[in-house]
Amino acid sequence: MTEMKVRVFVMLKTGVLDPQGEAVRHALGALGFDGVQGVRQGKVIELELADGTSESVVTEMCEKLLANTVIESYRFEVL
Amino acid sequence: MTEMKVRVFVMLKTGVLDPQGEAVRHALGALGFDGVQGVRQGKVIELELADGTSESVVTEMCEKLLANTVIESYRFEVL
């Protein structure tokens, strides 16, 4: 069976506190990297799906499981 | 001060067990999504850096902090 690859990006929405991103920002400063003004951390999820899976199915996967749409936004690209 | 945005992707290397990805794969199956053949989960880190930061500095950030190069690969794009 052939397959298609989809890459989903999940990020915290603007305004939602991102402690992981903040930790990275502090750590970069502590390592001597100057000028780091902001860091946001999110997830990438690479899916191998059956060929022909429609984008609406991927949207459903995002809405039901991959992203918490109250605090996270998502987007995906078919590779 | 103007700034530049860099997006870093960190994924587990092929062959390294990815329990988070496996958990997502099982959960998608349990939700009734068929044909999910593989899932890999990684990180996206969006950096706001001082304008003119060179790519070699970003590489250094990745090597020293953002990726564990023993088990993870990374790539980045300047936005």
From TrEMBL, chains A, B:
<keyword id="KW-0658">Purine biosynthesis</keyword>
<dbReference type="InterPro" id="IPR003850">
    <property type="entry name" value="PurS"/>
</dbReference>
<comment type="similarity">
    <text>Belongs to the PurS family.</text>
</comment>
<dbReference type="Pfam" id="PF02700">
    <property type="entry name" value="PurS"/>
</dbReference>
<dbReference type="GO" id="GO:0005524">
    <property type="term" value="F:ATP binding"/>
</dbReference>
<comment type="function">
    <text>Part of the phosphoribosylformylglycinamidine synthase complex involved in the purines biosynthetic pathway. Catalyzes the ATP-dependent conversion of formylglycinamide ribonucleotide (FGAR) and glutamine to yield formylglycinamidine ribonucleotide (FGAM) and glutamate. The FGAM synthase complex is composed of three subunits. PurQ produces an ammonia molecule by converting glutamine to glutamate. PurL transfers the ammonia molecule to FGAR to form FGAM in an ATP-dependent manner.</text>
</comment>
<dbReference type="GO" id="GO:0004642">
    <property type="term" value="F:phosphoribosylformylglycinamidine synthase activity"/>
</dbReference>
<dbReference type="InterPro" id="IPR036604">
    <property type="entry name" value="PurS-like_sf"/>
</dbReference>
<dbReference type="GO" id="GO:0006189">
    <property type="term" value="P:'de novo' IMP biosynthetic process"/>
</dbReference>
<dbReference type="GO" id="GO:0005737">
    <property type="term" value="C:cytoplasm"/>
</dbReference>
<comment type="subunit">
    <text>Part of the FGAM synthase complex composed of 1 PurL, 1 PurQ and 2 PurS subunits.</text>
</comment>
<keyword id="KW-0067">ATP-binding</keyword>
<keyword id="KW-0547">Nucleotide-binding</keyword>
<comment type="pathway">
    <text>Purine metabolism; IMP biosynthesis via de novo pathway; 5-amino-1-(5-phospho-D-ribosyl)imidazole from N(2)-formyl-N(1)-(5-phospho-D-ribosyl)glycinamide: step 1/2.</text>
</comment>
<protein>
    <recommendedName>
        <fullName>Phosphoribosylformylglycinamidine synthase subunit PurS</fullName>
        <ecNumber>6.3.5.3</ecNumber>
    </recommendedName>
</protein>
<keyword id="KW-0963">Cytoplasm</keyword>
<keyword id="KW-0436">Ligase</keyword>
